[in-house]
Amino acid sequence: MEATLKRTPLFERHVGLGARMVPFAGFEMPVQYEGVIPEHRAVRGDCGVFDVSHMGELHVDGPTAQAFLQAMLSNDVDRVGDGQAQYTLLTNEQGGIVDDLIVYRFAHGQFLLVVNASNREAAFAWLKDREPRGAEVRDASDEYGLLAVQGPRALGRLGLLEAPAFTHDMGEIDGIEVLISRTGYTGERGVELCCAADETPALWDAVLARGAVPCGLGARDTLRLEVCYPLHGNDIGPETDSISAGLGWACALATEFTGVDVLRRTRDEGPTRRLVPFVLEERAVPRQGMPIEGGGEVTSGTHSPMLDVGIGMGYLPSEAATPGNDIVIDVRGKPKRARVVKKPIYRRET
Predict the structure, then answer these.
(1) Is residue 134 assigned to a domain?
(2) Taking 90 as the threshold, does the pLDDT of residue 255 lie above it?
(3) Could you tell me which of 189, 201, 183 has the C-alpha nearest to residue 157?
(4) CB-based contact 242:91 (threshold 8 Å)
(5) Assigned domain for 180 exists
(6) Distant-in-sequence, close-in-space partners of 222: CB < 8 Å, separation ≥ 6
(7) What is the pLDDT of residue 350?
(8) Half-sphere exposure of 340 toward its Cβ, with a 13 Å CA cutoff?
(9) For tag attachment on the chain, is the N or C end more exposed, with fewer CB atoms within 10 Å?
(10) 34 lies in a domain?
(11) pTM to 2 decimals?
């Protein structure tokens, strides 16, 4: 491993559990423990815990903080009340996605942005360069640890009550003070727990003692792909716009924010391509960068542990992006048939 890689407060815990460590977004992170498939199924069937302490946390405070974020972020920050959170995008002048993130609102005009690990520096610099009088942007990422506890039994194992999605509050888990957020990246019920960096190992131990299965980046990726959550750097980025990416719902186009004119025009004219989910109809595993016949490209691909087929997302010309449409993917030189489907790819049986 490169000496320059950062480590989360849980590095020793991961090594002690026999995790396979890999470089990811500048950190040395666990890709799997027992294996991607059992970890994936633990989250779908019971409860898994992920170390997501590599994510970035930016504080935005001050009397003009709300107006500043309203002008910087694509969604309508004015609709977020104290104790609430919102998925949103940080956009550039072309309507491209600098980062996708969650903004949390606290009392007294304080906000917390949880940004992607690989975009922490870019998102901070973007906001800091545009910081107005009366607002302060501060990178507090190293001060916190963050665990994602996900699955149908997550709340029960943590002893937490039901609460609306995208809300947050302070609480305790086995005596450790945590910010409990009803958010996640798996499509399952669960929470993300934020605590002081030096208390993260104790929180991890407590969550494992309650029966959560440790899960790595591999399962995190297969879980999010089954429910069609985009990954920045694969499915979305500074060169892709939210309308083409199917994220128009996260853009309040009646408000004014960076790149909104481009996005309004794209909405009105219709995008030339769209990000769509697909399922392979032949045995194959699609991967990022594989060509799709007719001018498309795979942006994310894997083997679905729940459906036991190859699945993925990719951009297609808009006329080919209709659910039910048959497509052909070049999988290492071999044409493989696939079908465009509706989101999400995986749905829990009721």
Answers:
(1) no
(2) yes
(3) 189
(4) yes
(5) yes
(6) 36, 40, 302, 303, 304, 305
(7) 61
(8) 22
(9) C
(10) yes
(11) 0.96
